[in-house]
Design goal:
116 residues; alpha+beta; Alpha-Beta Plaits; 4-stranded antiparallel β-sheet; 4 helices; 4 strands; globular
């Protein structure tokens, strides 16, 4: 399993609107394709106006296929058109868990997949 960390830097003052829009229009279509949300956060100290989200992927091929299907989803496309004006910068990185964390990560991903 791999973890993708995505960081969006938002325009100052957009965080409440971003979260409201994501919850109302983005989370549901995204969850159809990215089933292991491991975290969704806002920065409090350090670089501000950042949203950090973590996604578990069984493989890099699965990540690529799932993201392609998500980007083709009309509901997700509509959400993305609306939200992208709030985003100044995007970063993404893929991480492998430490050997001693692999089982715990798998359990976390299973819990995430079973969440409503």
């Amino acid at each position: 399993m791999f973890v993708e960390e995505r960081i969006y830097t938002l325009k100052p003052g957009c965080l409440p609107a971003y979260f409201a829009l994501y919850e109302a229009k983005g989370m549901r279509p995204q969850a159809r394709y990215l089933t292991a949300m491991l975290g969704y956060y806002a920065s409090e100290i350090g670089d501000l106006n950042e949203v950090v989200h973590l996604w578990g992927h069984d493989s890099l091929d699965a990540r690529e296929a799932n993201r392609a299907r998500m980007r083709a989803d009309p509901d997700f496309k509509a959400y993305w058109q609306e939200v992208q004006g709030m985003i100044v910068k995007q970063r993404s990185r893929i991480m492998k868990p430490a050997p001693f964390f692999t089982e715990r990560l798998a359990r976390m991903a299973e819990l995430a997949r079973s969440a409503p």
